[in-house]
Write a structure and sequence with these properties.
346 residues; mainly beta; eight-stranded parallel sheet; 14% helix; 45% strand
């Protein structure tokens, strides 16, 4: 077994809060995932184009994943190619696995990718996803995490944006025992933009561990990190959101917001918003709305014949459906909505 640390806060807080990082163990007997045949496969170390990208979960698991995955799947959009059709990737494995995926958008291009993990069952998986958006390029990435109840998954993303580049990320956590997300976006170019949108439902004894970092280096950059979810039963969730205003990023803006609905007194919710500032002329905002349904809201529904249990189910579904509803491709949106409707315990 390989021991490592993931999702470390850029600046640690009180250790007794137990939110600074997560300690994990992964089997060194994991194997590479089988990639779809339609995309380019980069053998071995490749051309090194993506090697220096900072990853959201940290270098330990990044090095581990790339050593296991070996070859990487690369999706490339050439300069000026604005075809907005989504590349749909569905990974399916029965055993513990690691995947390496590289997304490259050339100058002025548009690259849209949908990653569907619903075929991965109960295995333990690691994905290493690296994104480069050159000047004036747009990358949209949609990820849906739908596993068997005892699955463990680590989704590690790193992105670098050029001048006026955009990275739009949507993630929906539907099921799985222990889901871990790490995203680090380097807004290197002036006027670059990050939009991340997360929806989650955690029930039973399931866990969700999140670490989002926006490194704002260019001038007039913008980052928007939004999360909305539901915790019930004995679920456990940590959300770390960091906006890092690097010296020289004058006139940049950043915001991070989380809306959490608690449907049980036994859940454990921890939200850690962090703003680091080495530049004077910037705007940073963070906020969290955490609570349960009010007595007035319950009375409103119950007076119309809707019992409390049904109200809770409707509210839980609405959090995920809101994020799914913002997917801009109708076919993918319909597929995700159908998946949400079929989920038995939503």
């Amino acid at each position: 077994m390989k021991e490592m640390i993931i999702n470390s806060l850029p600046v640690p807080t009180w250790r007794w809060l137990k939110v600074n990082e997560k300690y994990i163990k992964l089997s060194d007997k994991m194997h590479p995932v089988k990639y779809p045949d339609a995309y380019e496969i980069i053998s071995g170390d490749g051309d090194g184009k993506f090697d220096d990208i900072e990853m959201g979960m940290g270098e330990d698991i990044a090095s581990f994943a790339r050593s296991i995955s070996g070859d990487k799947m690369r999706i490339t959009k050439q300069q000026g190619d604005k075809d907005a059709k989504y590349c749909i990737i569905k990974l399916a494995e029965a055993d513990d696995y690691a995947a390496g995926i590289e997304l490259y958008a050339g100058e002025g291009s548009v690259l849209n990718v949908f990653l569907d993990y619903s075929g991965l069952g109960s295995a333990t998986g690691v994905s290493d996803i690296r994104v480069i958006a050159e000047d004036n390029a747009v990358v949209k990435l949609v990820e849906v995490f739908h596993f068997d109840k005892d699955a463990v998954f680590y989704d590690n993303i790193g992105a670098r944006l050029g001048k006026k580049a955009e990275f739009n990320l949507k993630q929906l956590v539907i099921s799985g025992e222990d889901i871990n997300l790490g995203v680090c976006t380097e807004l290197a170019g002036d006027y670059s933009l990050l939009n991340s949108d997360l929806g989650y439902l955690r029930s039973g004894s399931s866990k969700l561990d999140i670490n989002y970092v926006a490194r704002q280096k260019g001038k007039l950059t913008e980052s928007h990190m939004l999360a909305s979810g539901v915790l019930r039963d004995e679920a456990d969730k940590i959300f770390r959101g960091t906006i890092d205003f690097i010296h020289g990023c004058a006139d940049s803006k950043g915001e991070e917001r989380e809306d959490v609905l608690l449907l049980s007194p036994d859940v454990r919710n921890r939200t850690v918003p962090l703003i680091l500032c080495a530049e004077e002329n910037v705007e940073g905002e963070h906020g969290a709305s955490i609570g349960k349904l009010s007595e007035e809201e319950l009375f409103y529904f119950e007076s119309r014949g809707i019992p409390e249990k049904t109200v809770n189910e409707l509210m839980a579904a609405s959090k995920l459906e809101a994020v799914a509803g913002r997917i801009d491709d109708m076919e993918i949106k319909s597929s995700v909505m159908s998946l949400l409707c079929k989920k038995k315990d939503i």
